[in-house]
Amino acid sequence: MKAICLFTMILSILIAGGAFAQTPKELKPSAPKAATATSGGPALSLSEFLGQVSSKHQGYQAADQTSKAAMAESEAAKLLFRPNLVGEARAFQHGLTNPYADDTSKVTNRAYNLGVEQQTNFGLSGKLLFNHNEYINPATQVGPSSQWKPDWFSLEFSQSLYRNWNGREAKSQAELIQSGALAKAFSQSYATKQLLLEAESNYWSLVLARENVAMQKDSVARAQRIHDWTSRRVRLQLADRAEGLQASTNLQSRKLDLKTAEDQERVAAQMFNSSRGVVGDQVNETLATLTPELIASFNVPARTTQRDDVKAAEFQAKSTAANARLEGEKNKPKVELYGSLPVTKPQEPPGGSGNFMFLSQQPGTTIGLRLSMPLDIGTQSRVREGYAAEAQAADWTFQRKSFEEERDWQDLTSKFREAKERLKLYTELEKQQSEKLNYERDRQQRGRSTLQQVILFEADYQLAQLGRLRTLAELLTLNANMKLYGVSYESR
Predict the structure, then answer these.
(1) Which residues have CB under 8 Å from 445's CB, separation 6+?
(2) Is residue 440 a contact partner of residue 453, using CB atoms and an 8 Å limit?
(3) pLDDT, tens digit, for every residue of 14-51?
(4) Bridge partners of residue 290, in order along the sequence
(5) DSSP secondary structure code for residue 82 in this structure
(6) Are 228 and 18 in contact (CB under 8 A)?
(7) Which long-range contacts (CB under 8 A, 24 or more apart) does 273-280 make?
(8) Alpha helix (H) ranges present in 362-481?
(9) Whole-model pTM?
(10) Is 254 helix (H, G, I), strand (E, B) or coil?
(11) Which CATH architecture has domain 13-72+178-315+396-485?
């Protein structure tokens, strides 16, 4: 009986020793590594993903198309000062009284003209016309029927002397058209860049979500090994049941963390697919690998251009100011010098210049003045003040946008440098926490520490991992935001 008891005791010690012997290697956490996002499918780089977004995201396509259309529409301002083809055709009859006979002739007139007109940017409008007329006079008591078909070139002009002086109204109208279209174009261009920024953020979010899932799986595996090892010790009555309960709750907590990470990965996959116009949370592609070398290559780029939303505000301010000037010009008195004159002389009517039947129809030279002015001076003044105030408000809006752009850039670059520095510290901390956890596990095997301390150090290690991932996410977001300041998506 004593031999049996002794054998049982030795066997128990050997079994317990075996449990101790196999644990240290199994429980050692792996050192921190580059963030990877793999699924075993075909590789999909960031630039390829953004290409899918630009070709399949309807919101992006709409904003891009609107921006291009508005840019083309801005050319309409040039048409105000371009030549236009003009023409007119008419036919009518009019009476011509014969002073030497008691009758009235009905003269038939058929005519057309064709030419070009143009408005200049200094207030002069002009037309150069080719004129063709056909006058047919029926037979009368004093003479037979006759015809006259003169052709000639004529010039018509109108020069503003007060309203639209030096083309202020016309130039304001042109700037209103151009600036309004450009404000719309840059506003929509900014919308496309924001959509690409959002898509890039979704890409890296899925990369980091997959990294987090992999990290949590490692944590569950370590917690499972701790649980199995502690359970054997409890069964052999080498550890108190409290340690077994502690190991069980630790395992359950790690499984809960894994489930949370998997849920976050599913949401990230949905957002990833949404950016490229796909419904669902299945992403089979292998995404990019965030190597330490790639992360180290991220630096603050040089600003190459003004942000598109600031450009939009600038052109909106110009458009509003142009509209204020235009409305101010419209309410001014209109004084115009106008005239028309034949450039070439038409052929003589039948019978020469003595033919009274056609004398009144010969082209001549005209010159005159036109005046038009509003009489409600009070309302006119208030309207001008309203438009001027609106223009001032638009200018202040642009100035504030410009200030905020400079402020945001400085804040962005400062946060970027700080995030890079924190990422280095978190990476180093993660390594140190890994070493600390391994060392504490070894101490526990030698009976110099407790399971509670090991679990506590496990939590410290996981917090360091999560801190690194959060900082990495912040760094990637900041890097994407910098592209709004002129850095192309393909170049980084």
Answers:
(1) 20, 23, 24
(2) yes
(3) 333 333 333 334 444 444 444 444 556 899 999 999 99
(4) 35
(5) S
(6) no
(7) 274/202, 275/49, 275/53, 275/57, 275/195, 275/198, 275/199, 275/202, 275/203, 276/49, 276/52, 276/53, 276/56, 276/57, 276/199, 277/52, 277/56, 277/57, 277/58, 278/56
(8) 377-445, 451-481
(9) 0.77
(10) helix
(11) Up-down Bundle (1.20)
Q: What is the DSSP string of 196-253?
A: HHHHHHHHHHHHHHHHHHHHHHHHHHHHHHHHHHHHHHHHTTSS-HHHHHHHHHHHHH
CA distance 144 to 162: 53
**Calculated CA dihedral for residues 424, 429, 435, 436, nearest 10 degrees:** 170
Between vectors from CA 400 to CA 395 and to CA 405, what angle results, nearest 5°?
Answer: 125
pLDDT in tens, 322-358: 988 888 888 888 899 999 988 888 777 766 554 545 5
Tell me how far apart the alpha carbons of residues 390 and 321 are, in angstroms, rounded to a whole number. Answer: 8
The answer to whether the beta carbons of residues 457 and 433 sit under 8 Å apart is: yes
Domain ranges of the chain: 13-72+178-315+396-485, 83-119+124-163+334-372
Which residues lie below 8 Å from residue 207, measured CB to CB, with a gap of 6+? 35, 36, 37, 287, 288, 290
pLDDT for residue 352: 55
The shares of helix, strand and coil residues in the chain, as percent rounded to the nearest 5, are 60, 15, 20
Identify which of 492, 69, 456 has the alpha carbon closest to the alpha carbon of residue 288: 492
Question: pLDDT per residue over 369-411, tens digit each?
Answer: 989 888 888 888 888 888 888 888 888 988 998 999 899 999 9
Confidence of residue 11 (pLDDT cuts 50, 70, 90): very low
Q: Distance of alpha carbon 437 from its chain centroid, rounded? A: 48
pLDDT exceeds 80 at position 489: no
Structure tokens at 469: 């991932």
Rounded to whole angstroms, what are the CA distances from 317 to 36, 162, 163, 324, 453?
47, 26, 23, 11, 65
